[in-house]
Amino acid sequence: MKLWAGRTGGDVDERLSAINNSIGFDSRMYKQDITGSIAHARMLGRVGVIEKEDAEKIVEGLKGILEDIDSGKLEIDMTCEDIHTFVEGTLTERIGDAGKRLHTARSRNDQVALDIRMYLADAIDRLIGLAKVLTAAFCDVAEQHLETVMPGYTHLQRAQPITLAHWLMAYAQMLLRDIERLNDCKKRTLVLPLGSGALAGTTYPLDREYVAEQLGFNGISLNSLDGVSDRDFALELLSDLSILMVHLSRFSEEICLWCSWEFKFVTLADQFSTGSSIMPQKKNPDITELVRGKTGRVLGDLTTLLTAMKALPLAYNKDMQEDKEALFDAIDTAELSLEVLAPMLRTATFHPANMKKAAAGGFINATDCADYMVRKGIPFRDAYKVTGQLVKYCIDRGLTLDELPLAEYREFSLVFDEDVYEAIDLLTCVSQRRLPGGPAPEAVKATIEATRSKL
User: What are phi and psi of 76, to 5 degrees?
Assistant: First the structure.
């Protein structure tokens, strides 16, 4: 059955069907297609476009189709052109001519625009839920490591002391922004296009607001051309997911580094690690490598849809059918990545001793040494220079600032006294950075509490 048979006979070359048919991927929207059709049928009966009796038959028939697909009693016919064709054809087979009235005052153009908006709104809810689970995992693990000192890095060089909790909560903040973006995207997604028709609306007296209310939409589209041709909401979701995946990829990259023997800051649980087929000693962080790799897929999905949309004249063009595979792939990839990282993080074993050793050997308390001198009345630029000379002196002798005798400190400046050792102690260095957003245990604990309240 071809919904468009009439102008043509409907019989097409099998190669046209292969490139034209979309049921292979849009069949996953069957719930949204049926739910949207139920709302449309109720409205048609309510405003008198079709008989109320026919509307009731349509609604009951659609409910039965949905129930049968959900239960497995009815299989979707993958030879149909699309999910809309399958649903309408099955409905007509079951209830007769009343089923042919369902498509009154509707085009597949505004129908598919509705389906995809409904599908994405549901997907956004799932993604937000998964992002919240991962954010909670970051908070819980961070709470266990408020005083686990480690080096913070710039340029992959040891820079200043922070805590593992502070590092974990950086990723929690990224996820909070991801959640905010997804919530904003959902607002713009829930705009009802149904009633736009093919491009110019319809002469029937539809109640679009009633349909929007039934389906939980925020409002209706205000231009029929835009209603069927807009995919901004899809591009926005792909943009949001691209940013989300970049965040997950950065986290994954650090875990990959930290699992190496050169760092050995963390060991992943066996159930989240793989081995080598030839090297028996290997324990590989494939999980984070795959998330890092899959990020490229989502970025590619965004580029796919941007490219498809960039030169389309108004209104609907078949190019827009390409939106679904990119969207579905990005959603599936992001969901899987979020799902797997939360339990991986919760079961990982961090190694505070290795972190502290790395922090002690990198002169990352040099800034605190300079600040010590500033508190003694030395201008910062002079203190900076003296501290740099001290670091070079220690490197030449194989010492750290903590190990340098006080007498040798005083060769560089007489302001140094016994209290310098407390000032440059790594935990002291961290604890003194207690401004909101800093790495001090009390500051990080406040960040954890604020993050949990947002969740």
Answer: -70, 130
Contact 275, 286 (CB under 8 A): no
One DSSP character per residue, 281-319 reads T--B-HHHHHHHHHHHHHHHHHHHHHHHHTTPPSS--GG
Tell me if the bond preceding 170 is cis, omega within 30° of 0: no
Averages of pLDDT over each 10 residues, the chain, 455 residues: 53 65 90 98 98 98 98 96 96 97 97 98 98 98 98 95 98 98 98 98 98 98 98 98 98 98 96 82 91 98 97 95 96 98 98 94 90 96 96 94 94 95 93 95 98 96
**Whether 276 is catalytic:** yes
Residue (of 322, 344, 184) closest to 270 by Cα position: 344
Residues in Cβ contact with 313 at an 8 Å cutoff, skipping those fewer than 6 apart: none
Of these residues, 276, 277, 351, 413, which one is catalytic?
A: 276
- Non-local CB neighbours of 22 within 8 Å, separated by 6+ positions: 81, 82, 83, 321, 324
> Is 40 one of the annotated active-site residues of the chain?
no
Strand partners, 270: none
Maximum distance among all Cα pairs of the chain, rounded to whole angstroms: 100
Residue 4: the pLDDT is 41
> What is residue 277's DSSP assignment?
S
* DSSP assigned state of 51: -
3-state secondary structure of 424: coil
Which is it for the CA torsion 306, 308, 313, 314, positive or negative? negative
8 Å CB contact between 93 and 39: no
* The residue type at 147: E
- The packing angle between helices 30-47 and 52-71, to 10°, is 170
Confirm if 221 and 192 have CB atoms less than 8 A apart: yes
Which candidate, 262, 263, 261, 289, places its Cα nearest to that of 274? 289
**Amino acid identity of 93?**
E
- Paired tokens of 29: 């929207």
Residues 329 and 335: their CA atoms lie apart, in Å, by 10
Give the position of tokens 């153009």. Answer: 109
Annotated active-site residue in 37, 40, 107, 155:
155
Please state the length of the chain.
455
CA atoms within 13 A on the CB side of 219: 5
